[in-house]
Amino acid sequence: MAGPKKIIIDTDPGIDDAMAIFVALNSPEVEVIGLTTIYGNVYTSLATRNALHLLEVAGRIDIPVAEGSHVTITKGTKLRIADFVHGVDGLGNQNFPPPKGKPIKQSAAEFFVEQANLYPGEVTVVALGPLTNVAMAIQLDPLFSKNVGEIVILGGAFAVNGNVNPAAEANIFGDPDAADIVFTSGANVLAVGINVTHQVVLTDDDRDILAKSNGKFSDYLCKILDVYFSYHREAYSTKGVYLHDPTALLAAVNPSLLTYAEGAVRVQTIGITRGLAIFYNKQKRFGEVTEWSDKPSVKVAVTVDAPRVVKLVMERLMSS
Ligand SMILES: O=c1[nH]cnc2c1ncn2[C@@H]1O[C@H](CO)[C@@H](O)[C@H]1O
After folding, report:
1. Which of 137, 273, 284, 320 could be cross-linked to 109 through a Cys-Cys bond (beta carbons 3.0 to 4.6 Å apart)?
2. What is the count of structural domains for the chain?
């Protein structure tokens, strides 16, 4: 019998990243073989610090952390950091002490390539931030896109408005050039966009249940969730928060929680729609060659069993 699925979580923690990491650590279907870090919710160096801290909270310092890129794939340094969503420390302004651990010497991209070569077809990368590290791995090793088992992406706003602006979702907007490289790489890609994750809401009542449960992970999260709840109340008038990262993580754990369409995805890299990801379902045979014509298909999530996802997230956070 095959063992648990090996996953590497590429992360920019981030409150919903913290949730996803804890859910993963409490999911017997997967083995977390590493965390890699990227800018997005915070800068990369803080993402590394937070990744190490979260593993220490979880008592899992056996899991290596590889630091990722500090700049976009085109060496851009004008990064968009979402500290207004997660707090200046990325973890709800709690001023946690610095972690004791250190990242490994390898970069995130080198770690991806090494692990995909070590276990061809068996490693799933769950990318919860901008896709710079994944695109760098594709550029570093021409065989990476074949050797990696699957790349599950939290990103895109397929046929709905974005969350950075009407066109773009935050992770794709963070590095649109990298995203286009990943979507057109031929790797086995599954994208979970905010068209799906906006259906998965952890309500105020769910949070009360988490708070009363006395689980290690739920206790920790209830401390940091305030900032995330306030942001959602202000930005969306929702009585709850979107479970972006945990939903993408669970898509890697149990793909049957969602349904998917297959087709080619291209990302706009310039202009007012920079970061817009457009899915082509390959149904119409266009009379002319398009920028999508010869591109490999990826899977894009279309529906989600939201009550089951919320229930699973809660169970796994409370039973810690
Ligand atoms: O309004 C927003 N702007 C920027 N980033 C956001 C916003 N809402 C959530 N996220 C963060 O970006 C990813 C989903 O796009 C999630 O990781 C979430 O934490």
Report:
1. 137
2. 1
Instruction: Please spell the DSSP secondary structure of 174-230, one letter per residue.
Output: H-HHHHHHHHTS-S-EEEE-HHHHTT-EEEHHHHHHHHHS--HHHHHHHHHHHHHHH
Q: What is the maximum span of the chain, computed from C-alpha positions, in angstroms?
A: 61
Q: Where are the alpha helices (DSSP H) in 119-165?
A: 132-140, 144-147
C-alpha span between 204 and 64 (Å, rounded): 34
Q: Pairing mode, if any, of strands 150-154 and 258-267?
A: unpaired
Pocket residue to mutate for ligand 1, from 85, 161, 199, 202, most atoms within 8 A of Cβ: 85
What are the pLDDT digits (tens) for 64-100?
999 999 999 999 999 999 999 999 999 999 989 999 9
Domain that holds residue 61: 5-318
CA–centroid distance, residue 104 to ligand 1 (Å): 28
The Cα 169–Cα 158 span in angstroms is: 9
Taking Cα atoms as reference points, which of 301, 283, 282 lies closest to residue 292? 282
Task: Write down the ipTM of this complex.
Answer: 0.95
Q: Is 192 in the pocket of ligand 1 (CB under 6 A)?
A: no
